[in-house]
Amino acid sequence: MVSPGKNMKILVTGGAGFIGANFLNLLVPRHPEHLFVNLDALTYAANPRSLAGLEGRANYAFVRVDLVDFEAVRATFAKHQPEVVVHFAAESHVDRSIAGPRPFLRTNIEGTFNLLEACREAWKPGQGLLHHVSTDEVYGSLGAEGLFTEETKYDPSSPYSASKAASDHLVRAWGRTFGIPVKITNCSNNYGPLQFPEKLIPLMIQNLLERKPLPVYGKGENVRDWLFVGDHCEAIWTVVLRGKPGETYNIGGRSEQRNIDVVKQLCAIVAQETGASETELFGLVTYVKDRPGHDLRYAIDASKIERELGWQPQETFASGMRKTVRWYLGNQDWVASVRTGEYRKWIEQNYGSR
Ligand code: NAD
Ligand code: TYD
């Protein structure tokens, strides 16, 4: 088992994506005693610019590795000898999983399998720690009432959530069968800085700034339980340090919102921050064909992590949304960089041969 406070070698997978980059930006400067190695394939969803502030730090290293390439994963373990793995890397967008599920099965299932096998080779039973970052979408859809607990049965609806459910099962099985200390967190929808503008909140912010239609699926009545990304990162770190191996912790913000109400609030904040007319902005709402298999409602009972580990979210939805809108307003160059073909070219030039 890993004891908090000692110098740890921590392998973070998917650290160039939305949540992983927020996690590294928070923890690398705060914990110079730990070494953080970021393993990321740099898919479309990654942006190394998100990590610019960490370049040159003695306790941070980056390796471009695809988890599907087992030999490369093994080589990373041999070189860096991690004692803790925090596993963020995944294909994460539900709509993409409907358009083309194959990369989801490869990365989320085969990639997680490869990571587990690398842990099994590197660690004796009972050694090390694999923290698997997962989603509440594995539980399927709620009706109007009730909350997901750690005991809710798995019932995934989309190729994304099915692949994440499979990865959760693999992690638990490798824990029970091979004695790898594993922890799993299942979190609700995140929002905040550095999120790729294909997900609801950054997509709507960008479309508002560009006065493009705001595509709301179905009637906009689906409910998500939103959590500011910084609160999720603190929760993961809390579980890494103090959670019990073999346990699952649900993480959520007690912040249920209908999609149409999220869009309404974004219109109000963007109007206040930019001087635009809120009515004109709300006029951009366009109801479009619903997503197939669209889960109606997600809501998390986070009382286990609150009670046992003392974690609580710090941001309200209003304060987190304001911070997020301000971040996108101030970082339009970041948004432009992830949308252009130039960006892919730059990635290949800078990281192609590493
Ligand atoms: P993201 O799509 O923004 O980032 C994923 C990262 O993983 C990218 O940097 C990408 O390059 C990397 N990656 C993808 N395939 C890889 C591969 N084969 N090998 C190595 N790296 C690879 O995702 P995110 O929103 O930051 O989500 C991170 C994790 O948190 C995921 O496991 C996701 O299921 C989980 N999660 C996300 C949310 C959310 O609201 N975003 C909520 C709960 C749980
Ligand atoms: P999303 O950000 O894709 O997260 P997830 O599907 O993992 O919950 O979507 C959040 C909600 O917003 C979901 O109910 C689908 C809806 N949505 C829209 O209405 N329009 C959009 O353009 C997108 C991307 C999502």
Folded structure, characterized:
The chain is of the alpha/beta class. Helix content is 44%, strand content 16%. It has helices at residues 18-30, 70-80, 94-99, 102-122, 159-178, 200-209, 229-242, 259-274, 278-282, 303-309, 317-330, 332-339, 341-351, and strands spanning 9-13, 35-40, 60-64, 84-87, 129-135, 182-187, 190-191, 214-217, 223-225, 227-228, 248-251, 256-258, 285-288. Strands 3-2-1-4-5-6-11 form a seven-stranded parallel sheet, with helices on both faces. Strands 7-10 form a two-stranded parallel ribbon. It has a two-stranded parallel sheet with strand order 8-13. Helix 2 (70-80) packs parallel to helix 4 (102-122). Thymidine-5'-diphosphate binds at residues 94, 189, 199-200, 203, 215-217, 222, 224, 259, 291.
Supply database-style keywords.
354 residues, alpha/beta, seven-stranded parallel β-sheet, binds thymidine-5'-diphosphate
Main sheet: strands, sense, barrel:
7 strands, parallel
Q: Globular, elongated, flat, extended or rod-shaped: what is the shape?
A: globular
Low-confidence stretches are: none
End-to-end separation: 33 Å
Q: Name the average pLDDT.
A: 95
Number of helices: 13
Beta fraction: 15-25%
Radius of gyration: 20 Å
User: Can you list the strand order of the major beta sheet?
Assistant: 3-2-1-4-5-6-11
Give a list of the ligands.
nicotinamide-adenine-dinucleotide, thymidine-5'-diphosphate
The sequence of SSEs as H and E is EHEEHEHHEHEEHEEEHEEHHEHHHH
Structure, briefly:
The chain is α/β, with parallel strands linked by helices and 354 residues long.
